Amino acid sequence: MKTAGDILSALFDEGFVKKAQGYSKLFNSWADITAKNGIASAADHSRIKELDRGILLVEMDHPGWKQIIQTKQSEILNDFRHRFPELDISGISLMLGKSEPQIADSDGKAETETSSPQPVAEPASPENRTINIEESANPEPEVRGYDAIKDEAFRETLVKLGQTISDREKSK
């Protein structure tokens, strides 16, 4: 009786299997490469969607993460080129999409959430905003700036990014 490995080996040549393993390593390296570039938390909100004609397509779930990844885009590209020279990666394209959020299972391992992501609603413009009467009678203080960001890791990343930009502006 033949094993599954024997059957697969008969179906696919060695070159095909090596190429498939290379792609698998590419897709699994996203968390490692973002961590190496100081934006490890971005991997929880983004993923490599595909590699098409040398362009690595990365999808993220929020515009803020797109901006953060853009700040490290050239370093990330260099890391991918160095780690996967055989794939001829010539660029990275960032897109906002429906990247599924990661949730931890009981063992602490990350799992993709199976429910469909909710669409991101655009904030209403001041002239189109409906005001609730109770809201206008008892206005709560408006939370602005970094304090309005509920995700603590994302808020810390943005604070660090803002500080880096500020430091660079001062040194000019």
Structure, described:
This protein is of the alpha+beta class and 172 residues long. It has a domain at 12-115: 2-Layer Sandwich (GMP Synthetase, Chain A, domain 3), CATH 3.30.300. Helix content is 44%, strand content 15%. The chain is built from seven helices and five strands. The chain has helices spanning 4-11, 14-28, 30-36, 63-71, 73-83, 133-137, 152-171; strands at residues 46-52, 55-60, 91-96, 102-104, 110-112. Strands 1-2-3 form a three-stranded mixed beta sheet. It has a two-stranded antiparallel ribbon with strand order 4-5. The longest helix has 20 residues, at 152-171. The termini are far apart. Residues 101-106 and 108-138 have low confidence and may be disordered.
Q: Keywords for this structure?
A:
about 170 residues, alpha+beta, GMP Synthetase, Chain A, domain 3, 3-stranded mixed sheet, 7 helices
